[in-house]
Fold this sequence. Notes:
Helix content is 29%, strand content 16%. Strands 7-2-1-8-9 form a five-stranded parallel beta sheet, with helices on both faces. Strands 3-4 form a two-stranded antiparallel ribbon. A two-stranded antiparallel ribbon has the order 5-6. The protein is globular, with a radius of gyration of 18 Å.
Amino acid sequence: MTTLAVMQPGYLPWLGFFDKARLCDVFVIYDSVQYVKNDFHNRNRIRSLDDWVWLTVPVQAQGFPAIADVKIDNARLWGRKHAATIRQAYGKAPYFGDYWEDIEGLLGQQWDRLVDLQMGFIRLHLDWLGFRPRVVMASSLPIESEDRNLKLVEMCQLFGATIYLSGDVAKDYLDVSLFAAVGVEVKWQGWLNPVYPQFREGFMPQLAAIDLLMNCGKESSKYFEGASQVPVVRNPVLMPNGGELGVTGVGC
């Protein structure tokens, strides 16, 4: 059996992103869908002192471009600032030294496209966590359908997948019957944020995955083993404007 999962790429992705990668054989990076302004495509949160901060990559995105076509605004010295913020936030974390050189190296490069920066961090995380799916860019696939359900069905057929692993958010729109018609079973990820040790007092959920790595190092992968084995939290995270942190655009 072959399991396929699809996720939109983000900057410094969250733990649920890598949980999907852990559970599948073919991991399709959905870079051909529309870029969403002020979503997680170009930003995420890390813990800083007793609060959290956004790390946002400035972009040039006119109209409604696909994620793969979004350019980074390199007129602003964002990379240096992000590196300084990460170092300030995690410099005293137990495993900072294990990851800092790679992080600083990526942030010190000149990136043109947002997706290349995203993939740089995604591939680093997969290596750090020891997850080894086959990673494929959706923009490279010969998908013909315009229907969002049928696009996913086509992806499954291209790779001979018998299981499609979907995030729970897709229950509102995914037509399971279309998958069943071609012999593909839909399974639901059911991700819950695990509680793990953080070197600062108290626990803060729903951060970029580097928070787990900085705090737990090579033991990080064990926290992906399921809600039955580690405590979980469902706390909503408040946005700077007072609203709740949503999941629109981050999964499939």
